[in-house]
Amino acid sequence: MDLTAITHTGGPVLLWRGPDYDSLDLTGPVIANWVNKGVGLFGDYDLGEDFTLFAPLPQGLHWRELVSVLSVLLAGGHAVIGSSADTGAGNSGTPATVSGTAGSPVPPNADHVAIVPLGHEDDESVAEADEVFVFNPPALALSTPVDEDFIDINSAIRAYPDVTHRRLDGSGTLTVDGEDVAWNPEEGSDRPAGRPQGLLVSNSTPLPGEWPRFLQHLLGGGEVLLANGVDDSRITDLADSLGVVHGTLGTWTK
To answer: Which residues pair with 80 in a beta bridge?
Structure first.
């Protein structure tokens, strides 16, 4: 898996819907641009097989966390997603993890950097990270108000080019809730030809076994509705209005 298919996909591919009706529709080329920018940013921190990005997802999966994870996976690094949350908490399916309590995401044992939303930069789960990248969650926020101990990823990532000369071969490894996930199908394995059909809806962070389908659908140019902090009635209305739902990911109630 690489950026070839999604780069040549027209129209919105990733439809982000957040709290307070925050929304953003990203085309395939725009997603590729953000991934390439992430490769450039993390490349300055030795992105490669010995590089680990930890994403505890204290507020559920955000589109900025997703493109950062893709940057690492495509460039051969290790992405660790630690959304160890009570997936039955609340109707929205938003993880209910609380820093420093039982069930909190467990950081990697190896050296790592971390990415968290604003307000979680002092969480216990990222206390051992070499660097903490902090993003401002509103869809179009250009900066993040953090002090010099942290990296404002909203600002920092925009300094990098939309293209990369690195070979993105999808050789990275993925760990979700302590489970190693074979997210990238082996060459020659059976995969449907062409662009994935239908809308894939994630009303919360995908479960470990759902990440391969999620990433392959997105990178193949399939449409994904990613929601965070959206109640069930609204996410159902959104899905119904956007097209034929191909499948759902994460905690889902109707």
So the answer is: 54, 175
Give the separation between CA 253 and CA 200, rounded to whole angstroms: 15
pLDDT at residue number 245: 64
Which amino acid would we find at residue 209? G
Number of Cβ within 10 Å of residue 109's Cβ equals 8
| Listed residue (107, 101, 100, 59) closest to 82, CA to CA | 107
CA separation for the pair 238, 142 (Å, rounded) = 26
How would you classify the pairing of strands 78-81 and 23-27? unpaired
Strand partners, 170: none
User: What pLDDT is stored for residue 10 in this prediction?
Assistant: 87
Q: Are 64 and 22 in contact (CB under 8 A)?
A: no
pLDDT digits (tens, 9 = 90+) for 52-86: 999 999 999 999 999 999 999 999 999 999 965 43
Distances (CA, A) of 114 to 88, 145, 228: 26, 17, 20
Tell me if the pTM is above 0.85.
Answer: yes
What residues contact 212, with CB distance under 8 A and at least 6 apart?
181, 182, 183, 184, 185
DSSP 3-state of 73: helix
Q: Edge-to-edge strands of the sheet including 179-181?
A: 151-152, 132-135, 113-117, 52-55, 78-81, 173-176, 179-181
